[in-house]
Fold this sequence. Notes:
By secondary structure, the chain is of the alpha/beta class. 30% of the residues lie in helices and 25% in strands. It has an eight-stranded mixed sheet. Strands 11-10-9-12-13-15-14 form a seven-stranded mixed sheet, with helices on one face. The longest helix has 20 residues, at 109-128. The chain is elongated, with a radius of gyration of 24 Å. Residues 46-158 form the THUMP domain.
Amino acid sequence: MDKDFKMVATTISGLEGVLADELRKLGARDxxxxxxxxxxxxxxxxxxxxxxxxxxxxRILKPIKKSKVFDEExxxxxxxxxxxxxxxxxxxxxxxxxxVFSRNFTTNSHYISLKSKDAIADYFMLKYKKRPNVDLKxxxxxxxxxxxxxxxxxxxxxxxxxxxxxxxxxxTNIAPINEVLAAGLVLLSGYxxxxxFIDPMCGSGTLLIEAAMIANNIPANINRKHFAFxxxxxxxxxxxxxxxxxxxxxxxxxxxxxxxxxxxxxAVNKAxxxxxxxxxxxxxxxxxxxxxxxxxEVFGKTTILFNPPYGERLNINVEEFYKSIGDTLKNGYPxxxxxxxxxxxxxxxYVGLRTSQRLPIKNGDLDCRxxxxxxxxxxxxxxxxxxxx
Length: 389
């Protein structure tokens, strides 16, 4: 039986709590949040499960060495002390990336990754008179170097390509939302597939797809073709398929509506294509509709969640645009909860509705707010007056 070991799941700033919750529900032990990451323990099978199932993780790292380093020479020597032949064949390929937060290292992260690469190559040259090749696109082993103050952590990247690359998105619009962020927003909203879901400005359909996978408990990366751990020396293919099958058996069917609108026919076509790629066309409907001319046409409680254009993305009249969002929600979507993400904090005042939550989150380099509006049948005041004494 495999032993548990420490791992790190990285994520987007603002989603640490969501990721920690996902890990606990999946069965991780010793879960602890950090900045843009969550530490946890699990065995090899759990590492496979985390890669396949986690919605808000960017990558899963397996630390193999931690030591104190004060300069490039210390770094080089620490990396040379690792028995690399246990991890990488001399005829194999590797790549190194680095993240540095230390005053001791005035050089940039790229230089640190090159220095680390040299240490690994020299290790093999000294021992075998031959060195593995570097392959930045599809290496057999991807190594992650993290330096924080005087602490060096060397990890193996079990994911390879970022886990936001789910494998379903072939068509995109201007500035499409990252899949990990999209899933995080859906989970932050509290949506679980037990009510209707509408994205009224759906673009290429990413929020709809992530919502449908959550509603039906479909593993986030089930459409993905490859994970880096499949190249590792200790890869257990039988175990991988046992884990995958166990996750597939937990898929359920949600019978509530999941709908997307967009005023651009090209966006509607792209969203439909991506939904087909994700094998979710039976769960999601996409319609050529201008949200500002729409009203709620589904019965019952509904989550509305969208990523409206920011000033950075499209040339819009911000005041008029956000006022129209507020008017349309207020007049056309009773008995709903609306969430939107924006980097234009001043634009929110034009919505004309009171927010019941404002959560800080990053979208790429942009500081954003994810805000919530409760939409009642009448006004909130009327709602209270209707309650009997």
